[in-house]
Amino acid sequence: MIYKLSLAVISLLFSIGTTSASTITNNFSFFNSSNVVIAGGSFSYDSAATGVIGYSDLETFSINVLGQSYDLIFAKGLAGADNYVYFGFDTALHTFVPFAVEGYDIPVSGILAATNGWEGFFIAPLPGQADPAGTISDGKVTAYDPFTSDYAITVSIPEPSTWAMMLLGFAGIGGLVYRRRRNGYAVA
Fold first, then answer.
1. Is 103 left (phi over 0), alpha (psi -120 to 50) or beta?
2. Of the residues 33, 101, 144, 159, which has the fewest C-beta atoms closer than 10 A?
């Protein structure tokens, strides 16, 4: 009886020890207006994580920004001390989340950041995303290096459907103006 009980306890402990949550890995890239990758990397987190996750929730993180490589150890090492450090990823929407990142100077809108102003990287919200700090830096990707400071701006190109809607809107407004003038109404 004790043999069967100890065997059951050992098998239960073994099954608990071998059961592990799965890890989700995401790869990402940021392109410039010429479709050249200017920043890219990957990160992984426990599949049980929900909502918006940050650096503290990540198991791995790596990014290459304009030729400079950074990892999770670098990002976590800059936490605090008035540095710009932020990672926000919505696990439900599978997108980076903009935030007003506090640092050594004024708050700046960012979606990925780990910099002290001398080294590191900073990626501003992409065109069309919210700008919580009102810094109007759509898509600015910056790599800080003690010897160089490079940046590139990603520019979004409207989709054909966006162009079509815009042209239809202009045509509609033009038609209204034409009709009003023809009927003798003043256009304000």
1. beta
2. 159
0.90 exceeded by pTM: no
The residues, any chain, with a CB within 8 Å of residue 112's CB and separated by 6 or more, are 63, 86, 87, 96, 121, 122, 123
For 81-103, how does the pLDDT look when each residue is reduced to its tens digit (9 = 90+)? 778 888 989 999 888 888 888 77
Q: From the CA atom positions of the chain, what is the Rg in Å?
A: 25
Of the candidates 67, 70, 71, the residue with the CA atom closest to the CA atom of residue 58 = 71
Contacts 24+ apart (CB under 8 A), 156-163: 156/126, 156/127, 156/128, 157/33
CA distance 138 to 148: 22
- What whole-number distance in Å separates Cα of residue 133 and Cα of residue 107? 6
